Protein 1
Amino acid sequence: MDKKVAIVGIGTTGFRATTPDVSYRELTYEAATKAYLDAGIEPQEVGAFVATSEDFLEGYSISDEYSPDQLGAVLKSIHTVPGDFIQGLGNGVMLIMSGYADIVVVQGMSKASNMVTKGDLLTFAADPFAWRPLQESPHAIAAMEMNRFLYESGNTIEQCAQVVVKNRRNALLNPRAALGAALELEDVLNADPVAEPLCRLDIAQHADGAVVCVLASQEKVGSLKGNPIWVRDVSWATETNALDSRTWGEAVYMQLAAEKAYRMAGIRTPAKEIDFAELNDEYSYKELQHIEALGLCAWGESGKLSEIGWSERTGEFPVNTAGGCLGCGHLFELDGGQKVLDAVLQLRGQAGELQLKTANTAVAAGWRGVPTTTGAVVVLGN
Amino acid sequence: MDIKHQKKIDKTVTSLRKKDVTGGKVVTESWEPNLEYAWDNGPAISRYLAELKKGKLIGKRCNKCDRVLLPPRMFCEICWRPTDEWVYVEDTGTVNTFCISHVDWKAGRLNIKGGVRPFTPAVIEIDGASKGMGILHMIDKTNPKNIKMGMRVKAVWKPAEKREGSITDIEYFKPIGKKK
Amino acid sequence: MGYRKVAVVGAGITKFARYAQETVSELSYEATKMALDSCEMNLSQIDCVSVGTAPDAFDGIHMNGEAMAEGSGGWCKPVMRNYVGGGTGVMSAIHGWQHVASGMFDTCLVVAEEKMSSAFPHPAGAFLTIFDHTTEQPLMPTLLWIFAIEMQRFMATHGYDKKDIARVAVKNKGNALNHPSAQLGAEITVEDVLNSEIMAYPVNRLDVSPTSDGAVALVLAAEHVARRVTEKPVWIDGVGHALDSAYWCTRDLYYPDYVEVAARKAYEMAGIKEPHKEIHIAEPYDPFTYKELHHLEGLQLAPRGGSVKMLMDGHFDRDGNLPTCPSGGLLGVGNPIAAAGLMKVAEIFWQLRGEAGKRQVPGQPKCGLAQAWGDLMQVGTVVVMRA
């Protein structure tokens, strides 16, 4: 699907631990205004909108009711995808490829600070019969996965800690990031355990923010100002919600999504043909697991490569150049939006102090978080 | 999907009765979710609430479509631009539509025969806001049977010391005479 | 411009019940399996899955789309959930159309499920939190209120009588007698409706659809696959959806603009210029009696203020000029929210194929429409299908 659909505008509020000065309405309104200015369009020109949200993240039943006003989508085609932002982006691409609309807007928003009982929320997502009665933290699901992943791949806890150090340092140079910090490896390793082997600093802290992205068809791109970033392919996959039968070591959902995306984008050797990656690192080990699932290095090699600086901004294959979830904040369904945003800014050469020398092709990858096995992958190029 | 499929369809679901579920005939698992939220209301609704506490209703004008928007908002959803000045509106209005509810929010029946008054929620178009700008509130101090479309109503406020910056600072709307 | 042709080639449905013992995943499985069997396909031939389920507050599972994925044939496949409240059922068919029409997939399973009985003490409680958390929820509103409020406005504007509107319940519950999934098929009279207990005046109990558990699934395929799989593909020729502002108190509730916008989009795509002549059969959304008429007006299938006369003239009966809700609708078959909407699409599929058994409308209909509504009197979703 090369050069069929492009990202022609993107806007964000940036990410902060709290945003007490605005409601969800104004938060999205700001990101949307910036995205439309960036694309040089008015919302009236938009053919369809996709909002990404889940009811219990917003604190509403039927949260999609509150999606149109702040996007300028009143009495227009808009629907909600309860999924990662990159799944929403995939839906936007389908809307254009089908001919339903030639300009599509994709929105994601996090008001994590408004959720008082986040832990209980994740438990509410877990299987009502198999998991909830055990009264375990949902982080324990991640910890079990981490253990199996490290056991099978040979990667180490220290290498996971290295991911935390890298991403939070990258965030120091990112004006949009909430959680930049200059940490040492020992700081991470000595942090309080949450569900061993996960410690407090292995887990991304929550943040608020919004991202709005404007997509356009090939025909429309020519008439719009700016710098189109082409969607070379987008794909998503779910393994299973079942805790008893899922694959605990590898991120199968991400492998499936990546294989399809690469096939459609004509990419055979991803590590060579792609310049950098923005991928889900909601837990430190997830970055390593996802690097391997995306085929960016051989199985079991991601930890060693991280130790020698391979995934640093100055390294051979930069990963999470702007800080990822660990540095920008965990944004729930917007996680993928932060990844797409930073990939687009790099590809456009607008990443400021974070700018890479070579940024022609990127992969961005999102995961819906515990307890799901749903991931989405988009390959972007300029 | 002929009627011959009836048997097949019947087999798809094991249909229970409520007492099977509540009476322990089938094994169940229950979970009371602990979900709490503390919503940031933003500048528009925060001011709206602050004014309610003072016993006033406030809207915001959009100078492009020339509407006075109630509840106030920071941007006009139709013109897609930031709104302009704050505008106090009246605490009187006209009933756009209403109903007489014999159930509460959990679908529990009110004891109407036992003298409990039904709920009478209404959409009330507030004077001073643009035509059609209604808010949801309750009507009281009149027989529900007397409530009519287009009826004139006025807010009955809680005493100042009991107001807390909520839509419930207005206890209800009561009928008044015709608009001058 | 030309659209890639997308057909419905198979459909499956569970029984609709007030309390189903089956889990979210099991309900989805039953419908999905039946849909695949109906067109003799298996999961290896399915490229992707679109799931639809309305508020998670009913099922009692955060991210319920994930919980139903495996039962919906989604294991190790691209699965995406769509969501527009009550409009989700028909939106699911639209969402499935988007998957296949985009050319990115050749086949798509569309599965809609709802298990409302999980919510205790009553699923209606979940509706409190659909209202604005700051400006409306403190008044402890219930969903019934806004329906009753809207019905009142609809009646007052057009001078409709409640006893005439009650005929929708008589018709739909009667139609449902012939639906094998039906929860509330019954032979009733207008007096029964008027004498049933008042919920929120002007809404009586028999004006309202029940709460239900159930699931429905469709198999969608691109033209080259559809022609191989079946001799009777039913084409999705037009789709449209639209959402109005969240400020529901600001619009005049007598007319659903959002349904009109969605319908016009679907008609344009399907090349329909005179819908009341070109549409032979319709499944408008009928969670409440007046809603069917309200929507028929929005769909341009009845003039504004003219739907009651058409109803009284028998226009909408199974053997009328425009049979509406021949399935029995939500009032008769039941209302597992998302599944109920997709049930309407499935009904059009069966009717256009001549496979609706005792429910079959006469005259071999060639063009049908299914529509759903949802949110705060806010969303319209419309699908136009042809044999």
Protein 2
Amino acid sequence: MDTAYLIETIIKVVVILLIFSALAGIGTYFERKILAFMQRRLGPMYVGPYGLLQVAADGVKLFTKEDIVPTNVVAPIFKIAPVITAATAFMAAAAIPFFPEFTVFGYTVHPIVADVNIGILYILGMMAVGLYGPMLGGMASANKFSLLSAARTAAVFISYEVVSGLAILAPIMMVGSLSLVDFNNYQVGGISHWIVWSQPVAFILFWISAFAETGRTPFHLIANDHEIIDGFGTEYSGMRWGLFFIGEYANMFFISFVIPLIFLGGFGDGSFLGAIGLLAKVAFFFFFFLWTRAAWPDVRPDQLMWLCWKVLMPIAVINVVITGFVMMF
Amino acid sequence: MKMEAFNDRNVADNGYFLVDIEDYPTDGWGKFKRVVKRSFRGELFVGLWVVMREMIRFDIHTVQYPQEKMPIGPRYRAVHEMKRLWESDTERCIGCGLCEKICISDCIRIDTKIDEDSRKEVSEYTINLGRCIFCGYCAEVCPELAITHGGEYENASDQREHFILYEDMLTPIDTMKAGKQLEFEGFGSITPHEDERVKKTPLAY
């Protein structure tokens, strides 16, 4: 392990941290604007031109707010829970190739922190660990709504880990590797080589479970405002609450990277056009998260469980079996 | 719109029909068929299309309040105004005290004295807007149409006892000289251009 490699890795980590922390903030701006437009409103308008500096105003507010640890909470767990959410979200990003490799001043940069050979397994595992953020936060809080939210978190995350894992198993069988770079290279031949054409069921199942694992609207049960206040976030304030938020939005961005990389060709042949194409796909998937929030109602928790165990999981298993038979013969 | 559509009570010939609601399935196979039908009917995409259509159409209904304000109707009962006489620009209020007497929340305080011309003069007149319920009795009872309600509704205050004085309510003399005093159009007056917005109310089905 030479020094250049170490320096390069540290720079990449810092860049990813900075960009995606900022993107989480800007993501809230886009969410508020797009939701407003879909509901015939204007959204934030006063801070800066078209409300663009609203992100900065929110950031200043979050950073300078008093850090309240309420009386009856389990303080150490209460304090560490938001860190788990944000940290696991960013740790999952380590195995995501954000761009094709490019050359700067004769030095080839691989825009992936660690191209480990178990990339997808690592990402899924890290997102599964992310469950401990809301769950511990909710259990450490001293109110019943947070506790309900913690219970829902455990149920939803564990259930949909099954669906996303089984759904992704079929593409893994086809590619024969767990590295996202290998996935990208498998589909390098253009649109007709995308895995989505041979695995449309897996694509839709993984997309559905992405909504559950980021806790977005059709499955927005773990912090459902109209039922359980803010769920696990009820007793949080200031930057601790902000860390939950950054974690949630960073997760949305990362899953929006993972879906195109696995199913929709990723950055293609590695040209500049391919990189732009990947960004466009990520933008679409992020926009879709906001779009569904404006359009669709939430499902009930029992319907969510029913959907997972009685519908999606059998379909995923059948999909894996059929893929296996097709590959065998 | 023709009124026949509302007056004709024979609903059977007018295109009304009973909505065909299927019985809820009781057995497993029926439930399964219902799930499949609902999954592939594409209702979720209808919802997606509706919000996308509104976003593309960009028909924003927001009123950006401090910069933009909705026009307010003449019937609106906001902070009181004291009018002047058109002939002499003097105050209309004759200090009769009827408004103080009728005020049901007891928020008007009026004091009068005899001035040097042996005429009754208002020496003190205050309204406690913190108590006022803006019922409009003072304006209705006023024999001289002196006290009326205006359209100024932005009366946030740093304390509950928010008083407004006679001089604040009185039409400024330069506004009066310019002939810009707005007359109260009377109770039951309608909003300007209301004719264009009015729609017929169906009286019968």
